[in-house]
Amino acid sequence: MRAEASKTAAILVIGDEILSGRTQDSNSHYIARFLASLGIDLKETRVVADVEDEIVAGLNALRARYDMVFTTGGIGPTHDDITADAVAKAFGVEIGYHPEVYALLEARYKPGEFNDMRKRMARIPHGAALIKNSISTAPGFHLGNVYVMAGVPMVMRAMLEALAPELPRGIVVTSVTLSAEIPEGTIAPGLLDIQNANPDVAIGSYPFYSEKGPGAQLVTRGRDGAAVERAAQAIEALVEQFGVTPTRV
Amino acid sequence: MRAEASKTAAILVIGDEILSGRTQDSNSHYIARFLASLGIDLKETRVVADVEDEIVAGLNALRARYDMVFTTGGIGPTHDDITADAVAKAFGVEIGYHPEVYALLEARYKPGEFNDMRKRMARIPHGAALIKNSISTAPGFHLGNVYVMAGVPMVMRAMLEALAPELPRGIVVTSVTLSAEIPEGTIAPGLLDIQNANPDVAIGSYPFYSEKGPGAQLVTRGRDGAAVERAAQAIEALVEQFGVTPTRV
After folding, report:
1. pLDDT tens digit string along B7-43?
2. Does domain A174-248 have CATH number 3.40.50.2300?
3. Could you tell me if B43 and A31 are in contact, meaning their C-beta atoms sit under 8 angstroms apart?
4. Measured between alpha carbons, how far is residue A204 from residues A32, A176, A184, A213, B51 in Å?
5. Residues of B in contact with A53 (CB under 8 A)
6. Chain B closest-CA separation from residue A184 CA (Å)
7. In the CATH hierarchy, which fold is given to the domain comprising A8-166?
């Protein structure tokens, strides 16, 4: 069984707060796992500042190259929320109040509360479709192959959930992870041989240090489950040659 | 007091394991905080796969644009560790065994253990200086404005510590964070006015939801501490106009 060409994706995180070290980005890890569960290959992640030119340049580089781009951050009501305008600029389309979003937001606020800054959340690039926000009303949107989501993790997750049905699905990558109390350098020559003999899988070695000494997590990944299992068994046999019993984790 | 032009930096994380969702990257957050403590402005972070062309392209884009580039990952002994070769290719320089590193590693291993794959860790691009690894011997290196570090967090941190003395220092950014139990949209018009009146600071608004309802962290950042304080006090006064008392966090 060979997988068809799988779909590729990139993430663009928009956030001064990540670059300044104030906040640790958790959205990109969440999206990575989500895409993996759909069989979509995440190929690149970028974090850029809340600066229009940076967002436009990042978007245009990524959307030209990958099947899908997921952005997080910068779609709220405050002056530092400039993602929607940047997306419009990147695509060369107009932006203005989206009647449905305007009505949705107007209904949400009490009289007098729907101020000019909140109205900014109704600005959607022309031609974009909405992504439902079940948490805090103001929707995300997608235009072409770009999916624009909020930065607040709870809201981002709800948006991802909302757009899941329309995303393509591929064959999910299978993986086997072996944990072994052995220095990776000891088995590196054998691992290279196994990788060369199994070109349809990707073998990664991730060293760790515990109180027992150096160890490694040996990860075999691929879309052909039988090929993954064959390579993993070869790695098990390799580790056992050095008198160590690996465990599957 | 005006800050001199501050130094800029980017991070290039090399790691299939991050993109697959297997591992959550913690290195870039650590480096972001470290750079902030030195007064260096982190402008961009990218995560790319363990693919030579991707690493070369990312390196060349970032090193041309920023004063410094910090990479993590891909300098171990296994077949998937290809960062040193990619750096040599990006700079168009030769790569080969570095006599000092070769001797260091040879001395570390017992006879017969210093196999061909471990010898790969002695391959350093010509012209690079070493970055000491106090944890597991095999050093990182820097070439031009690129600093190449390990991916294992404990090792990466030790390398960052080792190279700290040689990094430039700038004026550290001061920040004041106010936490307020108020929807950010309510104060967004006033925040815009304060941002416009205080162009030397950057004001960010980060909404959150608690059991008390919506709130926002209002962050003022800048290199002129007095300007930061003036803007923060203006934000405090703004929030208080709505009958809410913000707290400094």
Report:
1. 999 999 999 999 999 999 999 999 999 999 999 999 9
2. no
3. no
4. 17, 11, 10, 20, 12
5. none
6. 7
7. Molybdenum Cofactor Biosythetic Enzyme; Chain A (3.40.980)
